[in-house]
């Protein structure tokens, strides 16, 4: 990190914030929304920088875990999965809770930090968070690793000035983004309007006037124009050797992607029958989406001299009544798309159109000369649309970079002027540290769940012993008392965490990870497992067990523990 301005401090993120893990609800805890339920925030509820309860799942109020309540203004982060690192601010007033895959990034001392500065700071380091998360076998980020990031902390008054300035600048960026997002829709409507005008004769009105021609369209069925209509090869392709064969996904409206291929071993006879040539039209015969069924693309050049096509595509070759380029335009127009999709049938979830239905499509054609004129004008207008599209992409790229550039400037101390009268961040951090015990958000115990039935049998000592043996075997922890020191050094070392467990976990049932989050355990995971085993069995002649196993889920491998009743 470059040199920071006077009064700033470079420190652990965990010296400024705390990351609270969510509660591990069971799948059968989730219910439909009702009067006696509360929403649970899951990763899917974090979208576009905002946390929403619109589609949140719920739990019954009596299962609500008090220590995991999300408050308005909290910053939530996805801790695992494909979208690890995405963040959102909860801005609603409804009481909600978070599940175990969502982290809550809270200020250690709310009176000694600006929440908006925290939000922008996390966004600033998000790329580094993603790098760390996706460096693992499964994308995930732990609360501890988040807290270890080194970040710049400004004096409190400057935090507020920075947040105010970022609010102003990024609001304008958001406005520009909103305007840019309209461009693809505008371009789509423009292209559709061009195609509609082209196939109705409006696009070539001036051309006809110059030629002193009247509008003249003749009615046909598609079969009148065909030299051939043929389904492709049904043999199963591979990824490595043979003749290149298009995938079904290679054909879209007015486009054929010849890089979207696999390979197929075929005979010379089949190659000659199914090879593609310039001027061939390809239609999609089947697709899961109606938008992609019956769409037409033209082979206007060949990237492979020996390219063939699969069974889910249909190849069409037209006679001298039409030019292929015009037929591509015609079948891509809104009128013909509506006509074609009206013939689509659904079988086993797949939507398809037959060659017979394609042949029977009714259409209108102008003369060959006017078809050529239409193709020329459409290409000119589409070229302009492509130019606008390139400008849009370039503007979008610049806008994406602008946000990170502004954030970088802010956290180098270059966005707003410094004030020598501001209290230094070092004093702020000292105050946070000194007030941490009083102000740090507490990681509380899970609520005690109601027993399913008063007649539910208790786990016997024999079952508990077996579970403990399974637990020990799973984690391979050495519990032989003769190999231990005469004092239980591990218990001594972590006595403060154990005391917190005894104070906060009374009557609660909890897993290993919940023990860690509820008691603010500072050791690594292997040490935690060893300590848990120590507390489960105790050291004969030295210490008594503090924990006992309540139950074990054979399917998931999760253990549920509780404190030993100390009488």
Average pLDDT, to the nearest integer? 85
Number of DSSP E strands: 27
Please state the CA-atom Rg, rounded to the nearest Å.
33 Å
Strand order of the largest sheet: 2-11-8-9-5-4
- Percent of residues in helical segments? 25-40%
Class from secondary-structure proportions = alpha+beta
Number of helices: 18
Hey, roughly how much beta strand do the residues contain? 15-25%
Morphology: elongated
List unreliable stretches of 5+ residues. Answer: 443-487
Please supply descriptive tags for the structure shown above.
567 residues; alpha+beta; elongated
Could you explain how this protein is built, in words?
The protein is α+β, with helices and mostly antiparallel strands and 567 residues long. A six-stranded mixed sheet has the order 2-11-8-9-5-4. A four-stranded mixed sheet has the order 6-3-10-7, with no helix packed on it. Helix 4 runs antiparallel to helix 11 (368-410) and helix 14 (461-475) runs antiparallel to helix 18 (525-537).
């Amino acid at each position: 990190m470059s040199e920071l301005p006077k009064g700033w401090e470079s420190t652990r993120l965990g010296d400024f914030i705390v990351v609270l893990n969510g509660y591990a609800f069971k799948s059968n805890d989730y219910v439909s929304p009702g009067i006696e339920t509360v929403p649970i925030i899951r990763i899917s509820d974090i979208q576009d920088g905002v946390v929403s309860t619109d589609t949140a799942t719920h739990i019954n109020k009596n299962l609500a875990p008090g220590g995991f309540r999300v408050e308005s203004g909290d910053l939530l982060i996805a801790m695992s999965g494909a979208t690890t690192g995405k963040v959102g601010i909860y801005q609603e007033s409804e009481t909600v809770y978070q599940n175990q895959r969502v982290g809550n990034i809270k200020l250690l001392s709310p009176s000694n930090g600006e929440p908006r500065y925290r939000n922008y700071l996390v966004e600033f380091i998000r790329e580094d968070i993603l790098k760390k998360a996706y460096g693992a076998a499964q994308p995930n980020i732990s609360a501890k690793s988040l807290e270890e990031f080194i970040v710049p902390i400004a004096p409190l008054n400057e935090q507020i000035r920075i947040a105010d300035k970022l609010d102003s600048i990024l609001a304008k960026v958001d406005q520009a983004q909103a305007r840019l997002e309209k461009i693809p829709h505008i371009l789509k409507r423009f292209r559709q309007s061009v195609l509609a005008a082209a196939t109705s004769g409006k696009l070539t009105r001036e051309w006809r006037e110059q030629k002193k021609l009247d509008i003249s369209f003749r009615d046909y069925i598609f079969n009148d124009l065909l030299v051939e209509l043929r389904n492709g090869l049904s043999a199963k392709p591979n990824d490595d050797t043979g003749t290149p064969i298009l995938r079904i996904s290679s054909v879209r409206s007015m486009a054929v992607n010849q890089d979207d291929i696999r390979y197929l071993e075929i005979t010379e006879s089949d190659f000659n029958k199914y090879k593609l040539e310039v001027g061939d039209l390809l239609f999609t015969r089947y697709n899961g989406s109606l938008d992609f069924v019956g769409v037409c693309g033209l082979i206007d050049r060949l990237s492979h001299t020996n390219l063939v096509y699969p069974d889910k595509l249909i190849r069409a070759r037209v006679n001298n009544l039409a030019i292929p380029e015009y037929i591509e335009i015609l079948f891509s127009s809104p009128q013909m798309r509506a006509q074609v999709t009206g013939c689509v049938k659904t079988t086993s979830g797949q939507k398809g159109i037959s060659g017979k239905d394609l042949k029977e499509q009714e259409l209108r054609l102008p003369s060959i000369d006017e078809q050529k004129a239409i193709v020329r004008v459409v290409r000119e207008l589409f070229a302009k649309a492509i130019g606008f599209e390139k400008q849009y992409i370039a503007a979008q790229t610049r806008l994406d970079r602008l946000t990170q550039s502004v954030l970088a400037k802010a956290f180098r101390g270059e966005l707003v002027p410094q004030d020598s009268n501001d209290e230094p961040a070092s004093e702020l951090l000292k105050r946070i540290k000194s007030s941490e015990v009083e102000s740090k958000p507490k990681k509380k115990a899970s609520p005690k769940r109601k027993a399913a039935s008063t007649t539910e049998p208790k786990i016997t000592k024999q079952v508990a012993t077996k579970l403990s043996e399974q637990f020990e075997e799973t984690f391979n922890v050495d519990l032989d008392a003769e190999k231990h020191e005469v004092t239980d050094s591990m218990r001594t070392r972590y006595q403060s965490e154990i005391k917190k467990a005894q104070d906060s976990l009374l009557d609660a049932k909890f897993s290993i990870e919940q023990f860690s989050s509820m008691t603010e355990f500072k050791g690594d995971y292997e040490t935690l497992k060893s300590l848990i085993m120590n507390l489960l069995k105790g050291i004969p002649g030295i210490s008594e067990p503090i924990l006992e196993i309540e139950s074990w889920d054979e399917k998931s491998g999760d253990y549920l523990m509780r404190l030993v009743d100390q009488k």
